[in-house]
Amino acid sequence: MSQMFGSTRRESVKRMRLGLLLVTSALVMGTACGSTDDSADAGSAEAPSSAFPDNPATGTPVRIGVINPEGGPAISMPDNRRAAEAAAEYANAHLGGIGGHPIELEICAAKEDPASNQDCANQMVEKGVAAVVVPSSGHGAAMVPIITGAGIPYMTPSGTTPAELTSPSAYALNSGFPGSLAAMANYAAEQGYQKVAAFVIDTGAVIASTQALGDSTFGAAGVELKIAPVTPGTPDATPQVSAGLADGVDVVAVIGDATMCTSVLRSMMTLGADQAKMIIQPCLDPSVIDAVGDSLDGATAFLGADIDSDEPEAVLYRSVMERYAPDADINGFTFTGYQAMLGLIRAAENLEGEPTAATIDDAIKSAVDVPMPAADGITFTCDGTAMPGMPAVCANQGIIAIVEGGKATDPKVGQ
User: Fold this and answer.
1) Percentages of the chain per state (helix, strand, coil), in multiples of 5
2) Which CATH architecture has domain 35-174+312-383?
């Protein structure tokens, strides 16, 4: 597996086009909601005391904005916000905040529509925040021009719009779904698979964009890609799965929300299908594992974070959440709030002078090989060179893991 993110992937990434962002945007909207099952059975290790030094922040606060999807008719992700709050509390108590100053959060709940997100962006400018963290959103285009236009840095774990991935002072910590798709293609090639059936959630332009860009990922890797659309909310995808598995498919990729993952995987069980599986993070939601049992064991997961292992970053994530947000569910996309907030804090560690929008922005641009929160072994550098054509992306690495007992095990990192 050590070569799975090798030169083939780098060449595929170079050929990616921004049209793939349509896929990413729709997937964010489709995969945002997950189970709220208790997550106490994650890894049992606890972070050492050295991870919690006695270094409280003092002095005048630095205001950091958080725009999070909450209270909307379709999407509400309060645990993302709780994770961002937990990371800020952790930094205030143990990391000296930002530049020695305590972090004071300005929270805006967006309903995940352009008007609401734009209003939140305007509020951040009016309140004079020094940076804005956005754990997850499909409406970056409505926020980035306002926020960065005011000279305020904008940080998100994975951008979903061209504005987030190309604008000065916008920072996307990782390559998100575009990177995962390229990694899947090259992993399939390295395993000798010749044909992949991708069960993809049929939302917005996802299907058309995935098909149009197939040559940039699977085609470039010499693997045939067969796309099988699945309508959101489909309770029984057996007809779609049966059609997708025809013609000698070697491996399946499941790309959608937790509900779609459950539907496709249960249909495979019904059909007695035993093809290898490639999945993304929502398929590890507790609701999916409860529904499909051990049928996911052996699947290959392409992830934006490692929250289950006993690696130091995963352990720190769980420990911080247990200490500062004990009632939050740490599964699903909760890590995005923690990853974005702590990523900002770590990137700004060596800022010069008082923590203002300008000095924080300069610190992010100049920070090199910053450890990615909740992703052991990955570092990020936001100097515009990580991903050709996407200067706001700070890292092109990803995590690949094998599913065992409903958890991502043996995580590997590469580029």
Assistant:
1) 40, 20, 40
2) 3-Layer(aba) Sandwich (3.40)
Spell 112-150 as b/e; 16+ CB within 10 A means b: bbeebbbbbbebbbeeebbbbbbbbbbbbbbbbbbbbeb
* Per-domain residue ranges of the chain: 7-27+177-303, 35-174+312-383
Q: Render pLDDT for 175-187 as a digit per residue (tens, 0 to 9).
A: 766 677 788 898 9
Quickly state the pLDDT bin for 296 (edges 50, 70, 90): very high
Question: Do 198 and 252 meet the contact criterion of CB atoms below 8 Å apart?
Answer: yes
Per-residue tokens: 226: 């067969």
Bridge pairing between strands 398-404 and 300-303: antiparallel
Tokens standing for 24?
């990413």
How does pLDDT run across 110-152, given as a tens digit for each residue?
998 999 999 999 999 999 999 999 998 888 999 999 999 999 9
pTM, entire model: 0.81
DSSP state of 215: I
Q: What is the CATH number of domain 7-27+177-303?
A: 3.40.50.2300
